[in-house]
Structures are given as structure tokens and as C-alpha cells.
Amino acid sequence: MTDVTEEKVKRKANNDLIRFVTFNVNGVRTFFHYHPFSQMRSSLKEVFNYFDADIISFQELKTDVLSISKWGKIDGFYSFISIPKVKKGYSGVGCWIRMLPENHPYHNAMKIIKAEEGITGLLSVKSSRSKVRYRDDKQLGLGGYDNLGITDEERLLKLDSEGRCVMVELACNLIVISVYSPANSGLTEEGESFRMDFIKVLFNRIRNFNKMGKKIAFMGDINICRDLIDSADCLNNANINLNTNNTGSIVEEKYHNDSVVFILNPQTPHRRLLNQLLSDCIIPELAEEGILIDSTRQIQGRDRLKMYTVWNTLKNTRPSNYGSRIDLILITDDIKDHIKDSDILANVMGSDHCPVYTDISLKSLSREVTLGDYKIPRFEARYRYNLQNHNVLSMFAKRSKTTPNTISESDSSSKGSSQSTTPTSSFPSHNTSKNVAANRTKSIDKFFKVTKVQSARTKSSMPNSKEDSGITLHTTKISRNEEGFKPMKDVFGKPPLCNHGDQCILKTSRTTENPGKKFWACDKPRGEPNDPNASCGYFEWV
Question: Mean pLDDT lowest for which of 233-237, 377-381, 386-390, 531-535?
């Protein structure tokens, strides 16, 4: 994979470019467990500064209302967050826009004009004292609600029930669309129907924006591989087809360096719809309808292979770079010449996906912006989730330093918050919290009290345990042979050697045909067939 250092994350120019970053974080809390984010004290502001980003889209936040105060009050950024209405701790999309200083050339251009949750315009936002649907108020909604392909409102509302999209309109006439598209991982008819409905409505909305004269930045986890070279599985299947002289839906394209790459002719419905949206599609009849271009391919070229952005963690395919590219930043075709840099950051950990960035000059969008009585949209997280006057996490008061072991998880997670607020009198007082914590500690000690029986061998290794702690452990050394345990080789036999000449590992089948049945397999992760560091495919039932 491409060597990506912290220095490369920095953009080539500062004031002249705006950086877009998309990242499926697979849980906004858990990615802070990985370097370099583990050193950032759960601060999204530090994460955004690390990427040197101005417009950021995160997908699969997997957060809830109680935690949004941590992710929705980021000093120096506007925050727009959508979470599921039905499935808690699932999906979720966030879009953050940097508040540029007044002396920045794009200070006015980056102002937020409107912001909207969802793709249908049927969701509501609080306006004055009542709730209003976006499509019913021109001052709130972005427009483009006609001819979406579906008229049933119940069916449309279902598409917006999982927190999958955020749309933000900037003063420079650019609409930023942050999306986490459905994948239908379960391969069900219902899942595929939902997926196709979502894609059709969203793509029709994008086309409507284009007809309105808007520029578009469509970014996120699209969950569609546009070409064969964007999927390791598809490439392998294509090699099989080519070896049997059955090219099927594979077409050939030659590049300036005389290399030949086989590209998938997009006949699957979701792939076809995506390619119809792209003016840089290699299928001429599909490209005619396209209005967006793939910014990463624009810079990296159409002949760069293995530019994957997601890998299968269960099969550990990231080390061998056997994955797919489904995280994209698509930009309106007529500003493609203003894309100055774009790439994947494959070595940045923290998720089963990796970040993607694109640097764009907004000079092409520069215009006289008259903001008038500028107001931040009501969908901004501080208003949408009522974060202006207090922090939800502040009700969990910090414990006294004399009881360090009783600090709650809420206290530790609030350290990285960019802003804090003193709790009101209605919240629990510090002394009350300390008493509760002390009682809880006593209860825990009592619960884990152990019978005072100890073997002579344990006493000799812990001579002061009885006097110092008042707790005596009962330990008994159990002989594995006495209990009927046997070494693995006596039960399953000696591990065979795979085609690499290495010992195989023992695995358990999880298929419906052979549930729980043991088998030997190569220890290396799945990868390209000719890769010596990838699995040789050895398989043998025990």
C-alpha cells in the first residue's frame, strides 16, 4: 500500500485550497483507540486538524443523543449530525464545516446558508415554536424535491429513518452531501429494495440540484464499486472468466503507458445507476448522462490498481491489501479542473475503512456573497440537539481526587470536550456524587469478598496478602491430564503443511451445511492468487 506519513496528510497549499475528507469511522468512540487518534483525548477538533480538513464527513458514527454533546460542540466548526430514528447505536452521519477566520479568502464563501437532514425533505426541524418539514419551507429546505421516483410518503420516510444523509449548502453555491449508503449485506430482497429506493431518490435529488444551477460535492461511503478495478473479488472473478475465454461483461481499456486494465461493464442495477451519474464513466452511453466526476481517479489516474478503501476485518485482508473502493468524493464535472489533489490514506488506522481526501480551489465558485441577516440553520447540532446552554455530560460531576478508582466512564470521556459548562443546581452535587461513589465502592468490595482458604504454595508466593488486604485467595492447581484435557495433536492429529510449507491452523466451519465441523487451513490472510504473503487456499477436513 502507499506509504502515508503524517506529513503527507498536510495539503500542498493552505489558503488557496479547501480540503474535503470522508471517513467511515465504524464507531466514533472506538477509532480513538488507534494511533494516532489515541493521543488526541477523544477530541474531534484535534482529529480534524490532523487531517488539515475544512469539510469533513464521518459515517457510521454509532452514537446516540446523550453523546452528541461531545461530537456536536466542536470549537471552530459547524456540526450537522443525523442519527437513526429506529436503530440505536447504528449508522449515523456527521458533517463538520470549519469556521474560517475573517482574513481567509473563503471566509464568506464557506458560510452555511441551509442545512437539511435526510434525502426526502420530509423530516422536520424546529422553526420558531413549531416543527416544519424541510420541503414545506423554502427558507429551510434546499429544494429539488420533484420527480424523486417515489411518491409514497411512508416509503420515503422509511429511507430517512436510519440517519444516512446530511446536506449542507454553502454561500459559494456548493451543496455538500454526506452519505452512508445502504449495502444490503444480508443479501435479502427487502434489503435490496431499500438500497435501490435510497440510491434512486438520492441520485434524482442530486440531478435536481444540478438543474437548479448548484455545484455538488457528494462524499461518503457509497457502498458501490464503480469499476472492476475497485474490487479485488471482481478482479479475481474476471481473471477466471478471462482464463476460460468467457469475458462476459468485461471490457478492455488501454492507457498511455500501454498497460491494459479490464473494467467491469456495469450491468448490476446499483453500479449502473452510479456510473450513469458519472461523466467520467468509461461506458460512453452512460457517461452522456453524467454530471459528477470521481475526484480521486481524476488525480490518481484510471490505471492505478489496488486503491482500496475498505477491507474485511474478519478475514484480515488489510495486510495483503485485498479489499474494495467504495468511499468516494464526487465533484460537479464543470469544476474538475480546480481539483488540485486527491488520494486515499490507506495507512491511517482506526476503522475497517480508510480516509479519503480531496483538495479543491474555490476560486471557480467565488462570487459576491450577500449574507444579509445571517443565521445559522436550525439543523446545526447546537440547536438541533439543544447544546447551546448546557452539556448533557456535565450532569455527571467529576469525582474527588481522593477516590480515583470511582471515576465514571462519562467523566473520562468528557475530558476531550472542546467546551464545558458548569452544572446547574438541578444536577447532582459533587459531595452527593462522592458519597454515592464511596457506597458503590464498598458494595463492590463486599460483592467480591472471597473465602479465607489458601494453599501453602500460594501463601509462600504472597506472604503479606492476608495481613495487608484482609482477603485470602483459594487457589488449586489443576492438572490438565487429570481433568481429561489432551494436547491438540492428540485430539486432532498433527497439523498438516499447507502449500507454503507452513503448519496449518485449525478452524471451525460456520456454514449451515457443516456447522461446528473442524478443518485445517492456510494461516495466511486472503489475498491475490500470486501473492506469496496471501493464503494458498489449502483446505482439509479434520
Answer: 386-390
Going from N- to C-terminal start, the domains of the chain cover 6-384, 392-442, 450-485, 486-542
Q: Report the binding-site residues.
A: 24, 60, 221, 223, 352-353
Instruction: Please state whether the peptide bond connecting residue 84 to the residue before it is cis, i.e. omega within 30 degrees of 0.
Output: no
- In this prediction the pTM is 0.71
Over the stretch 187-213, which tens digit does the pLDDT of each residue have?
899 999 999 999 999 999 999 999 999
CA atoms within 13 A on the CB side of 93: 27
In whole angstroms, give the CA distance from residue 486 to residue 480: 7
Contacts of 412 (CB under 8 A, 6+ apart): none
Q: Report the DSSP beta bridge partners of residue 253.
A: 261
The stretches of 344-408 forming alpha helices (DSSP H) are: 381-384
Q: What is the spatial distance between Cα 254 and Cα 235, in angstroms, rounded to a whole number?
A: 16
Residue with grid cell 420533484, as numbered in its chain: 146
**Backbone φ and ψ of 292, nearest 5°:** -120, 160
Q: Is the pLDDT of residue 266 over 70?
A: no
Q: Cell digits for 1?
A: 500500500
pLDDT of residue 510: 75
> What is the C-alpha to C-alpha distance for residues 377 and 173, in angstroms, rounded to an integer?
16
User: Residues comprising the binding site for Mg(2+)?
Assistant: 24, 60, 221, 223, 352-353
For 6-384, give the CATH class. alpha beta
Question: Taking the CA of residue 460 as centre, how many other CA atoms within 13 Å lie in the half-sphere pointing to its CB?
Answer: 3
pLDDT band at 369 (very low <50, low <70, confident <90, very high): low
The helix or strand, by DSSP H or E, that contains position 70, with its residue range, turns out to be helix 68-71
pLDDT of 16 = 82
Q: How many CB atoms lie within 10 A of CB 431?
A: 10
- 358: Cβ contacts below 8 Å, ≥ 6 apart: 19, 20, 219, 295, 296, 329, 331, 339, 341, 342
**pLDDT the model gives residue 325:** 97
Q: Is 542 exposed, middle or buried (0-12, 13-18, 19+ CB in 10 A)?
A: middle
- For residue 539, what pLDDT is reported? 86
HSE on the CB side for 491, CA within 13 Å?
Answer: 9
In terms of Cα–Cα distance, which of 501, 495, 493 is closest to 536?
Answer: 501
Phi/psi at 147 (nearest 5 deg)? 55, 50
Please say if the pLDDT value at position 76 is more than 80. Answer: yes
| Residues forming the active site | 180, 221, 353
Q: Please report the beta strands in 246-368, taking only residues with DSSP state E, as ranges in sequence order.
A: 250-254, 260-264, 292-294, 310-311, 323-324, 327-332, 339-344, 356-360
Query: Residue holding cell 471482481?
Result: 234
Q: How far apart are CA 241 and CA 255, in angstroms?
A: 22
Candidate ranges 123-137, 383-397, 519-533; pick with highest mean pLDDT: 123-137
Quick one: cell of 342?
A: 486527491
